[in-house]
Design goal:
Elements lengths: L3 E6 L5 H12 L11 E7 L2 E9 L2 E7 L8 H15 L6 E4 L4 H5 L4 E6 L3 E5 L4 H10 L8 E6 L6 H12 L3 E6 L9 H11 L6 E5 L21 H21 L3 E5 L5 H16 L8 E5 L3 E2 L2 E2 L2 H10 L2 H7 L2 H11 L3
Length: 340
C-alpha cells in the first residue's frame, strides 16, 4: 500500500482518471463538481485511491478509499493540494465540508470559521486569515450607537442604489458600504467600484469598502455533498451571513444591515427573508443585528433595478437609462457601448 504516487490531472482531458474519481466520490455519496480545474490524486497501480480538487482558492471533492483512511495518505494528499494551489498563486484556501468531517480537515491544517448545523462547515487554511482581516476593519470603525451596513453588487450602480445609501446613511451615525468583489458580473469590479465611489461622493458619513474573500461566491459554493439539493441556497446564505454577523459586523461595530425591497428576483427576495433569521434569530456567539428593508425607489412607475438597466442598455434606450442611473454610470455606459 506504499506504492502509490501523487500527481495532478486535468478532469477535462484525463478522462480515465475522471471516471475513477467520479466512482470514488460516488462511494461516499458525493457528486462530481464540474467547476474543478485540477485534481490531485493518489494512484496505486493505475487505480485512483484518493483525490482532492481545486476550484480557484476552494478545495473540493476530497475522498480516500477505505484502505487509505487512517494512514498518512490523507495528510500527504492535503499537503499536495495546498502546494499545487500555492504554485498557482492561491496562498489562502477555503474548504467546505459536512460538519461530520470537520475534525478530519482540522487534522490536515484547516481552521473552522462558521457552520450551518447538520449541513456545512466552512474552514480556511490559516489560523490568521480572518483575524487579520478583522484587525484591518477595526481600523475603520467609527463612533456611534447606530452603525449601518449595506452589501451590494451594483451591476451597475443605479439611482436605486444611490437612494438606498442616502436613506440608510441618514438613519445612522455611520454607514459602511461593501461592494462584492467577485468578477462574475457584466461590469468588472474596477468599473463597479469607480461608479459607486462617484455615486455616493456627496453623501456624508459613509465608508466604501472593497469586498473580501469573506463575502463568499455563489460561483464556487459547492453542492456536491448535499443530499437535499434544495438546501444549497439556504446554506450559502447561512454561511455568508454568519461570516458577516460573527466577524465583519463586530469588527466595525455594525448594529443594522440595510437592504432594498426585492420585487423582481426570487433568489434575492429569499435572501432578504433569510437575512432576518441568520442576523437576528439564529443562535450565535455574536449579538443580533437589526435588518432594515427599505422600499425601492421608482422611475416611470416601476421600481429601479440593475437588471432593468441592463435590459435598457441592450435595447440602446438612452432615455430610459437617464431615468435609472446617475450621471457617472450613464457616461460610462454611453462610452463603452457607443450610445448617444
Amino acid at each position: 500500500m506504499n506504492d502509490y504516487e501523487f500527481r495532478c490531472i486535468d478532469p477535462r482531458f484525463d478522462l480515465n482518471e475522471r471516471e475513477q474519481i467520479r466512482a470514488l466520490l460516488s462511494g461516499y455519496e458525493l457528486g462530481f463538481d464540474e467547476g474543478i480545474q485540477t485534481f490531485v490524486i493518489a494512484a496505486e497501480q493505475g487505480q485512483v485511491k484518493a483525490c482532492a480538487g481545486l476550484d480557484g482558492n476552494v478545495v473540493k471533492c476530497v475522498a480516500l478509499a477505505p484502505e487509505f483512511r487512517g494512514e498518512s495518505v490523507s495528510l500527504k494528499l492535503m499537503t499536495e493540494v495546498v502546494n499545487v494551489a500555492y504554485e498557482r498563486g492561491h496562498t489562502h484556501l477555503f474548504l467546505y465540508t459536512h460538519p461530520k468531517n470537520k475534525l478530519f480537515f482540522q487534522g490536515c491544517g484547516f481552521y473552522p470559521l462558521v457552520e450551518v448545523p447538520d449541513y456545512v462547515t466552512l474552514l480556511e487554511s490559516t489560523p490568521f486569515g480572518i483575524r487579520r482581516y478583522c484587525e484591518e476593519l477595526q481600523q475603520l470603525r467609527q463612533p456611534g450607537s447606530k452603525i449601518g451596513c449595506i452589501v451590494m453588487n451594483a451591476n451597475p450602480f443605479t439611482l436605486g442604489h444611490q437612494y438606498l445609501v442616502r436613506t440608510a446613511a441618514a438613519q445612522c451615525d455611520w454607514l459602511h458600504v461593501f461592494l462584492v468583489r467577485e468578477d462574475a458580473s457584466q461590469f468588472p469590479f474596477r468599473e463597479r467600484f469607480a461608479l459607486v465611489e462617484a455615486g455616493i461622493a456627496g453623501i456624508p458619513k459613509v465608508t466604501l469598502h472593497k469586498g473580501s474573500k469573506y463575502m463568499i461566491s455563489r460561483a464556487t459554493f459547492p453542492d456536491y455533498f448535499f443530499k437535499e439539493k434544495g438546501k444549497v441556497g439556504a446554506c450559502f446564505t447561512g454561511i455568508d451571513l454568519l461570516l458577516f454577523r460573527e466577524y465583519i459586523a463586530p469588527a466595525l461595530g455594525v448594529t443594522h444591515r440595510f437592504v432594498g425591497s426585492e420585487p423582481f428576483c426570487e433568489t434575492t427576495c429569499q435572501y432578504n427573508l433569510d437575512m432576518r433569521h441568520w442576523l437576528q434569530d439564529a443562535p450565535s456567539r455574536s449579538p443580533a443585528l437589526e435588518v432594515v428593508e427599505l422600499p425601492r425607489t421608482e422611475a416611470g412607475g416601476r421600481a429601479i433595478s440593475a437588471s432593468e438597466v441592463r435590459r435598457a442598455l441592450q435595447a440602446g434606450d438612452v432615455a430610459r437609462l437617464r431615468q435609472l442611473v446617475p450621471e457617472a454610470t450613464l457616461a460610462l455606459l454611453c462610452k463603452n457601448y457607443g450610445l448617444n
